[in-house]
Design goal:
By secondary structure, this protein is an alpha+beta fold. The protein has 11 helices and 17 strands. The structure holds adenosine-5'-diphosphate and magnesium ion (MG). Homodimer.
């Protein structure tokens, strides 16, 4: 396809913080943006040229995207794959509906990861109560995860025994699940690849990720792992993207086990929270890459310009009376960058923003980031 150039109109399904940062990147490059998001207050709406406030499968809204946009992408995996297929028949859509359908279903996702020759945690598909009668010893103690609609640790239960697995399956409404062995993690890392074709790929430096209550808390770049291990994660991410014939930005999460081996946890067919550091610390950021890939342009260079630490700001940081955190110290730090997503309501666990700290030594950046968070 011929490259799509500014001031073409680009469409995105979803107008949350990822859609907002995509919109800013696209607008900065001179594109126009149409956002489809039912929420009238969607964070991306503040920047978009057009906000279609309608359900994701609304025929009129989809028709508008198809007839006014040069290309369409998505900010999240839980879009209606059928709606994406319908769009894909009319306008270039990346990633493809097929790739999004795989990423939104843990069962298909794990099968694809294994098929690409990459390791996952031992797992068993649990579709019915009868599946819990099988020998599950290889997956216990484990984590029962719903196949669909899980995020930020939601739709998951830690189970030690078959009895606990049965109770958790019932509590999840007997929705299709995977039972996954609980692994001893040394740490977690992620690799984000931008792929236009086999010959046109770029991978960002690997991030080391720390979670709190199932939600990403801090990303540290460069990851404090052996460089060959980080290189292997990058290679695995490109291999997975190739296996899927993926077009767009693909984030791959990994577990680093106590014995130093690497296991793929899951993937996201879009820019990722653990890639927000690229906004401030890379030659090209992950949202610029999303724009470039959907427009058929070469991925930009991913050089890390400085060690960096990213800290998520959840609604928990806001005061109980709704008052803002005290931003003064953070805003005066000359090597820190605050990003707020423009969400009116702060709720516990809600991603409201993030900040980064850049420093010549990653340990110094981490120490300073932790100290800055304490001032909020
Ligand atoms: P989500 O879609 O919510 O991000 P994940 O499968 O990535 O779901 O799980 C969230 C976090 O829970 C992981 O980043 C990891 O810290 C922990 N976790 C998930 N599965 C396992 C496992 N099999 N063994 C150990 N920890 C796990
Ligand atoms: Mg995850």
């Amino acid at each position: 396809m011929a490259a799509i150039l500014p001031p073409a109109m680009l469409g995105i399904l979803g107008g949350g913080q990822l859609g907002r940062m995509f919109t800013v990147a696209a607008k900065t490059m001179g594109y126009r943006v149409t956002v489809l998001d039912p929420d009238p207050q969607a964070p991306a709406a503040a920047y978009a040229d057009v906000h279609l406030a309608a359900p994701y499968n609304d025929p009129v809204a989809l028709q508008t995207l198809a007839s006014t946009c040069a290309a369409v992408t998505t900010e999240f995996e839980n879009v209606d794959a059928e709606a994406m297929r319908w769009l894909g028949d009319r306008v270039p859509v990346s990633p493809s509906a097929d790739c999004v359908a795989i990423a939104q279903d843990r069962i298909a996702e794990k099968a694809w990861i294994n098929q690409a020759g990459l390791p996952t945690a031992p797992y068993q598909v649990i579709r019915t109560e009868g599946d819990l009668d099988a020998d599950l010893s290889a997956c216990l103690p484990g984590v029962l995860k719903t196949a669909r609609l899980g995020y930020d640790g939601k739709g998951q239960a830690r189970v030690a025994t078959v009895e606990e697995a049965r109770a958790a399956f019932a509590a999840m409404g007997k929705a299709a699940c995977v039972l996954e062995k609980r692994l001893d993690l040394k740490t977690e890392i992620s690799a984000i690849v931008t792929r236009v074709s086999h010959a046109q790929m770029a991978v960002f430096p690997v991030a080391e990720n720390h979670h709190a209550h199932g939600i990403l808390d801090v990303s540290i770049v460069p990851a404090r792992v052996d460089p060959p291990l980080a290189a292997l994660a990058q290679l695995m991410a490109t291999r997975l993207a190739d296996a899927l014939d993926y077009v767009g930005v693909l984030a791959v999460e990994f577990f680093v086990l106590e014995d130093g081996s690497l296991v793929v946890n899951e993937m996201a067919p879009r820019p990722h929270n653990s890639g927000h550091y690229t906004l401030d610390a890379c030659l090209t950021d992950q949202f610029q890459q999303q724009v470039r890939a959907m427009c058929g342009l070469l991925p930009g260079r991913t050089d890390l310009l400085s060690p960096v630490v990213m800290v998520n700001l959840l609604g928990d940081v806001w005061k109980e009376d709704g008052a803002e955190p005290n931003w003064s110290v953070l805003m005066e730090a000359p090597n820190a960058h605050l990003h707020l997503y423009g969400k009116a309501q702060a709720r516990p666990g809600r991603k409201m923003g993030h900040f980064t700290v850049l420093s010549a030594k990653v340990d110094d950046a981490l120490e300073q980031a932790e100290a800055l968070k304490d001032t909020l």
